[in-house]
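Office hours follow-up: a student asked to see two folded examples consecutively, so here they are.
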Amino acid sequence: MGRKNFDEYEDEEAGGRKSKSQAKREMTALQDLGVRLVGLSVSTIRDLPVSEDLREALLTAKGLTRHEALRRQMQFVGRLMREVDPEPLAAKLDELAAGHGLHTREFKQVEARRDRLVALAAHGDDGGDQAGLDQEVGSILAEMPGLSGDELTRLAREAAAERAKGRPPKAFRALFRLLRQAREADLAGTE
């Protein structure tokens, strides 16, 4: 039998056969998805809509520390991934990543708001900008009406005094908890 020319290969690919390179790219993509799945927490892996064999393989890979053993287990995970539709798993991973990003953003916003309150309270105690503290508290109360303005001001002043005297940040943490709980309640109320 003679050598195949380019047109014959093209006909085979058009007939539904994948090239060796394409098959290898798909297998590598499935292994990469498996690596991302192993990076999830144990409880999240248990909740994934996958076969029991794949779930056990993912949990086993999570417990391995030796490089060669982990490499072989990840190849096994990749082989089991061939039997699974990767789209729902990739969508679930993207959803989890987006949720984490949202949580981090909310956390940083609450931190920034707490830091602003404490900074304004520190300036207010020096005989400075008391109006700025009152304005910031008013802004927070407009966004989260369930809070007490007096409690916010008191905690901000206590946190500023703690920071100035080098004491442990008890009020600083209490102010953060108060703002975070109010923010979570506000978000839960809007859904």
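And the second, which I mentioned at the end of office hours:
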Amino acid sequence: MPLHPRDDLAAYFATLLRVSRGSISTSANVLDLGADSIMLLEARSWIEVRYGRRIEIRQFFEDLNTIDAIAAFLAESGAEADAASGADPETPAPVSRAGAVPMPGAALAGSAPADIRLMRAQLAMVAAVIEAQNRLAATLRARIAAPRPFDTPQAAGRAADHTGSSPSAAAAAIQETEVTPA
């Protein structure tokens, strides 16, 4: 007896996310459950093989973002699980998380060019953020390593003459204000 699409999908997502079926809320956003874009590509491929229905990756981020919504979409379209597909919900083939970073080649093989463009755009944004963080870190390291006006005892003594405080207090105050990021 075939499973209802909701139960079928819940079993699949539980295996994909490596959690118990009981911990999967079918009304929760699949991203909140722990799915990432690679997992969604795998799920899309599984759904296409199992139900014969193609879901665009953007739909997972918009209207088909819960197991209930995906199941309703499949039920409304009259999709039924294809037992001959080999896409058994009890033993789905999720992305391998063992060892090194998984290779997404299997998930991308059937991807539409728009999906690949989306993933490339996401990777470009992540690379830009990392580059900006590296530039900021280099700037902060340079500011910390730069000589300060009160690094020498003579300069610190001259500062004390002008400020009325001890050289070490003046040097500490300037060092704190220069290191604090904006």
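Two things to take away from it. The longest helix spans residues 113-145. The mean pLDDT is 74.
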